[in-house]
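Task 17 of the worksheet. Students: predict the tertiary structure of the chain below and write it out as structure tokens. Keep your answer in the requested format; marks are given for formatting as well as content.
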Amino acid sequence: MQPPAEHVHWLFGTGFVILSLCLLAEAIVGVDVWRKRAWRAYLWPGTLFFMGVMLWPVMTFFTNSTIHMLAHGAWADVLMFAGATELALVRGKLVSPWWRLATVLAFVVSGSAFLVHEQNTWFFQRSSFLHHLMGWTLLGVAIVPFARCLRPRSVLFGSAYALTFVAIAVILFCDRDLASVFGHLSPLAGSPHR
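Model answer:
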């Protein structure tokens, strides 16, 4: 028996909350203080990589069309690539701050995949609205990790980066499969679950 898709979205929302807490703590106390404990430097890149790995079972077991499978596969690839790049930067295997552009790529690919993978209109149902909202949000805030490449120690950009993951988590936590959006539910969507 498969759990509802909203449960999977909520699990990934929890992952994004963990990412945002790590990044916010790092932005507030500073990189030097945050990395006084060596394991903390690996916490958020490792979580990002793990989330990419966990998208593979989602792609395999929770997809109902080819476009969904391709979208989830693209998310898995870019999250793993961004997480691996950040892990290599922390480890010292990569030194150029321009490698952080992998996160910009992850935002752009993920935003595009959200938009392509939702075939219904904005007001079809809540999950359709949230997929469109997530896609445009990711495309719009891709400038934040780019700015972080330019000024990696900026508290402002670091905090904005962390709050970006908070926004993503909030959107994921709002997901319900069959629910109305702003009081509107398409008759083609079916009857609401609750």
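Marker's comment: DSSP finds nine helices and no strands in the chain. The radius of gyration is 17 Å.
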